[in-house]
């Protein structure tokens, strides 16, 4: 069936230039554009820390690499499936979500995704700020001994806090200048960060007597197969959770695709290989720190701070800061800014959405999320995957099983249109969303130590290790079963009359 896009969509309260469908003439992204996008986004400090955290958790090098490759192969599936609607209709994620959640209900998945992006923004900003701190304390030693100004519960020293704030202000200034200002930084990142990371790999190989041999023969720390599986399952879920955000809002990027083939091949070529390769470097360097220093250093910024040459450390930390700045704007500002704009398209633009993202990014206490690998994987990655998995299950079930990939774009912008359901909310989607989230709540509360592990049956707690998978399939199947007898819009007639059919 031909795609129905009315290029003269009425400018309702649900419409803005940022959220409007991209016309075919402006869809210019090819296979290489998508592959390079993923290579660029994968090449960041959190990816390195992802692999390092698995080593710190007890895995050997091949177990960590296998876990990362498997997780990224799994998340590639919903990435491509959700990307189809963007490539076909030119619509961004918040508008696509209106088809399943309703014109007003779409704000719920958009906000869930936006809050997670705010958390990632905070984490990246903390990494960049701490890199500045590592550099400045070499030249201004008193920065490390400033008296505390924050309560002990904050876990935040004064020196790192000052650098964090300075780097945060720099991010907000880039938001003020607009997205075009980031282009040169992205070019810098694409050239310099790979060089810096390869330099760390060179150090690891040369610092350990015997080179890669002793590094790659480091054994896993698990005492039994049961101990390995107890860490592997939530570790795999965390790997899927790492890109669970992008698996939802990938239409924000695929709306510019020249074809479906371009977005499918580009993502398949770009995501799993680049994540696995960059993670391998993180695994090697982290394993080397265990041999060289007698303790596992999973944060590359902390590791670089141990080097003796002030000039070398300063150059490395500036490179990390600039690269992190580029990644932060590209990966963690654009999408949440669109999500916040969806709340009030006429009042919130990209700049305002970026400011909102920045403020929430501070309030989420990012320095606590990356303080140790257990919190990074079990609390942060697995925790938010339990919220985003259900959203992905609902959207894919709606688009492929209920609507058979058929949307009427102009109705998505009509507050009283076919996708308004009941007062703008699809109550069936809300029920399915809750059904997918509820099974993971006990395990999450146990993980953050709000309730005792003995307060609920053990098998319920263990569901949390599979959080993304449980949420995805429970919500997706529930939604399909509830909605399959619902009359849905499939197309519009010659005079724009709306035609409905029963989903089953």
TrEMBL record:
Which keywords does this chain's UniProt record carry? Membrane, Transmembrane, Transmembrane helix
Q: Which residues cross the membrane?
A: 35-55, 61-81, 110-133, 153-179, 186-206, 226-248, 269-291, 311-331, 352-370, 376-397, 428-451, 463-482
Where it sits in the cell: the answer is: Membrane
Keyword Transmembrane helix assigned to the entry: answer is: yes
Q: Which residues form the signal peptide?
A: none
Q: Which family does it belong to?
A: Belongs to the purine-cytosine permease (2.A.39) family.
Q: What is this protein called?
A: NCS1 family nucleobase:cation symporter-1
């Amino acid at each position: 069936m031909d795609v129905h896009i009315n290029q003269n969509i009425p400018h309702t309260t649900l419409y803005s230039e940022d959220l409007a469908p991209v016309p075919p003439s402006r869809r210019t992204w090819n296979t290489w554009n998508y592959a390079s996008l993923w290579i660029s986004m994968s090449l960041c400090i959190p990816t390195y820390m992802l692999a390092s955290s698995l080593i710190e958790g007890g895995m050997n090098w091949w177990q960590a690499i296998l876990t990362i490759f498997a997780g990224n192969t799994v998340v590639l599936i919903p990435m491509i499936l959700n990307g189809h609607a963007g490539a076909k209709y030119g619509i961004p994620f918040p508008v696509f979500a209106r088809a399943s959640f309703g014109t007003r209900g779409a704000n719920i998945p958009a906000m869930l995704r936006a809050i997670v992006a705010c958390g990632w923004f905070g984490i990246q900003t903390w990494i960049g700020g701490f890199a500045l701190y590592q550099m400045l304390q070499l030249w201004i030693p008193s920065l490390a001994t400033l008296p505390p100004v924050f309560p002990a519960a904050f876990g935040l020293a004064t020196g790192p806090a000052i650098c964090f704030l300075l780097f945060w202000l720099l991010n907000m200034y880039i938001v003020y200048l607009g997205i075009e200002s980031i282009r040169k930084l992205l070019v810098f990142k694409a050239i310099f960060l790979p060089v810096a990371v390869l330099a760390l790999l060179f150090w690891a190989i040369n610092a350990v007597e015997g080179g890669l041999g002793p590094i790659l023969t480091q054994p896993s720390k698990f005492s039994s197969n049961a101990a390995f599986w107890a860490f592997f399952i939530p570790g795999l879920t965390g790997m899927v959770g790492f890109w669970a955000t992008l698996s939802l809002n990938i239409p924000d990027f695929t709306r510019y695709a020249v074809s479906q083939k371009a977005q499918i091949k580009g993502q398949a070529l770009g995501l799993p290989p680049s994540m696995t390769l960059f993670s391998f470097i993180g695994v090697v360097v982290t394993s080397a720190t265990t041999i060289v220093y007698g303790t596992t250093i999973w944060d590359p910024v902390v590791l670089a701070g141990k080097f003796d040459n002030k000039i070398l450390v300063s150059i490395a930390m500036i490179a990390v800061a600039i690269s992190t700045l580029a990644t932060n704007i590209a990966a963690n500002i654009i999408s949440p800014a669109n999500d916040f704009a969806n709340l009030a398209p006429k009042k919130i633009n990209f700049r305002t959405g970026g400011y909102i993202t920045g403020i929430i990014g501070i309030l989420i206490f990012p320095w606590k999320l990356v303080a140790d690998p257990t919190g990074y994987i079990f609390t942060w990655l697995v925790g938010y995957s339990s919220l985003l998995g259900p959203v992905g299950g609902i959207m894919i079930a709606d688009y492929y099983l209920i609507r058979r990939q058929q949307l009427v774009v102009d109705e998505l912008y009509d507050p009283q249109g076919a996708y308004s359901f009941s007062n703008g909310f699809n109550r069936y989607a809300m029920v399915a969303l809750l059904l997918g989230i509820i099974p993971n709540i006990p395990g999450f509360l146990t993980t953050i130590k709000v309730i005792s592990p003995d307060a609920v049956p053990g098998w319920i707690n263990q569901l949390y290790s599979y959080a993304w998978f449980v949420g995805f399939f429970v919500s997706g199947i529930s939604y399909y079963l509830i909605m399959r007898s619902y009359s849905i819009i499939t197309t519009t007639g010659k005079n724009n009359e709306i035609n409905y059919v029963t989903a089953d």
